[in-house]
Automatic annotation (TrEMBL):
Pfam families: Gate. This is Nucleoside transporter/FeoB GTPase Gate domain-containing protein. Residues 147-245 form the Nucleoside transporter/FeoB GTPase Gate domain. Keywords: Membrane, Transmembrane, Transmembrane helix. The chain crosses the membrane at residues 24-42, 62-85, 106-127, 147-175, 222-244, 250-268, 331-355, 406-427, 439-461. It comes from Zobellella endophytica.
């Protein structure tokens, strides 16, 4: 294990054993800014959001109807730059970070081309209608892409204040023992979960991917956190309950989601494929984590020492700005094409083929056994979430039984692995998860959380 944090921790304290004031301020001020932007809930009308969400909403309102065109321009730029790097091999992209962004394999290049093509078709409405229809490519370009562009723009810029100035170390050391005992995870993963609950599941994945690449999570831990802690936000939960006519039961709804989600987070990491992931670190970074306090030292003091040590190693303003801007470019040019391509294909399969209806036939007996009315109508909604997180709510809206709508809506928020957003981001990241593994995890989460949700609904709410 790297001793860099321990060595830096020695310089974070004065000779008298008191924490260095300069180091404390370097930890506290940026970390408080990160907490304010990512973790502090803000009431806005009848919704709950975060500072990052307010900034994203402001940018979205400022750009207005031009955002889809901006998204398509970015999609086309991604294809042009990737083709340029692969064919001309310019000096600026022969190695290093830009090389990794643009010198991709044929499958990923094909997805970028497909994403740009789908974007153009959805914007100008040409070609087969099932691709640019408002319920398929139109959803991704007009609804999802503007949110991703605005949210990720500020998330990538502000994320260093949350993860690079000691907050992860401070929280991690404080809650290390319970998280290790319950979830077999580092305490710092609590930050990932909190950022997801209050902000966005994709932000949680972004934090996890960056922490993994910096050596703070093993391969197993990163895969577990990304697929079990990147939960849908409170704001999106409110949207779902309103859409399916259950906003009068939001407290019961979110309580059920939290209980079922925590149960899944305990059980699923102990099952394949997640349990088969090695506890080894991303090689270029090595191990950079130390959360257990040495004997004789208080947990709070040790947490502060780790936080200050990390803050002392934080990048300066120029490096910070360069890294943040690179993150923005990486997300826009590498992630957005995957979301457009994979999201559109998934929605086409859900909307225009009976695939999810066929696949859901085995779910009908299970739903009937759980005593849920309209089981046949609800069955497709239990699996279609793999394509997009909003689709189960769309299907559930037409179900008359409030009990069944409640169960389907809760289930859609506990499944977590949605290919139009989280799935695309995971496949693009260096976290070692394959498409078939994401499908297995999705099915496991469905089979584990569905009975819990149904039981709670029957016993306590209906």
């Amino acid at each position: 294990m790297s001793s860099s944090l321990e060595a830096a921790g020695g310089h974070a304290t004065s000779k008298g054993g008191r924490l260095n004031r300069r180091g404390l301020l370097k930890f506290l001020l940026p970390s408080l800014l990160g907490v304010g932007m990512f973790l502090v809930p803000i009431s806005q009308g009848d919704q709950v959001t975060i500072g990052l969400g307010l900034m994203a909403d402001w940018l979205k309102a400022a750009l207005g109807d031009s955002l889809p065109a901006v998204a398509v321009a970015i999609l086309c730029l991604s294809v042009l730059l990737t083709a340029l790097v692969k064919l001309a091999k310019p000096g600026w992209a022969r190695d290093g970070a830009w090389h990794e962004v643009f010198d991709v394999g044929p499958v990923w290049f094909g997805l970028r081309v497909l994403g740009a093509l789908f974007g153009l078709m959805a914007l100008f409405q040409f070609g087969p209608e099932f691709i640019w229809n408002r319920n398929t490519g139109g959803v991704v370009l007009l609804d999802l892409a503007p949110v991703l562009l605005t949210f990720f723009f500020f998330a990538a810029l502000l994320l260093p204040f949350l993860v690079d100035f000691g907050l992860m170390e401070f929280i991690g050391a404080l809650v290390s023992k319970p998280f290790r005992f319950i979830f077999r995870l580092p305490g710092r993963s609590a930050i990932d979960a909190t950022a997801s609950w209050l902000g966005s599941g994709t932000v949680g994945v972004l934090i996890t991917a960056q922490q993994y690449e910096k050596g703070f999570y093993t391969r197993r831990e990163a895969a577990v956190i990304a697929t079990n802690f990147s939960v849908a936000s409170i704001a999106f939960s409110l949207l779902i309950t309103t859409f399916v006519g259950l906003n009068h039961m939001f407290i019961q709804f979110y309580f059920t989601v939290v209980v079922a989600g925590l149960a899944a987070a305990v059980i699923i990491p102990r099952l394949p494929p997640l349990s088969c992931k090695p506890d080894t670190y991303y090689e270029p970074a090595g191990c950079q984590i130390a959360e257990t306090a040495p004997g004789g030292k208080g947990v709070l003091r040790y947490s502060l020492e780790l936080a200050v040590a990390r803050a002392e190693q934080a990048p300066g303003p120029v490096r910070l700005a360069r890294s943040a801007l690179f993150n923005v470019v990486d997300i826009f040019l590498a992630l957005l094409p995957l979301v457009m391509a994979i999201g559109t294909v998934s929605l086409v399969l859900a909307e225009y083929t009976p695939l999810f209806t066929w696949l859901s036939y085995p779910m009908i007996p299970l739903l009937e056994w759980l005593r849920l009315p309209e089981a046949a109508a609800a069955a497709p909604a239990t699996l279609v979430g793999f394509a997009d997180m909003f689709l189960p709510a769309v299907l559930a809206k037409g179900i008359e039984s409030e009990l069944t709508r409640f169960v389907v809506a809760c289930l859609s928020l506990t499944q977590l692995v949605y290919m139009s957003e989280v799935g695309a981001l995971l496949l693009k990241s260096r976290i070692p998860l394959k498409l078939w593994e994401l499908l297995v995890i999705f099915l496991l989460r469905t089979l584990i959380t569905l009975p819990i949700i149904a039981l709670m609904a029957h016993l306590f709410f209906f």
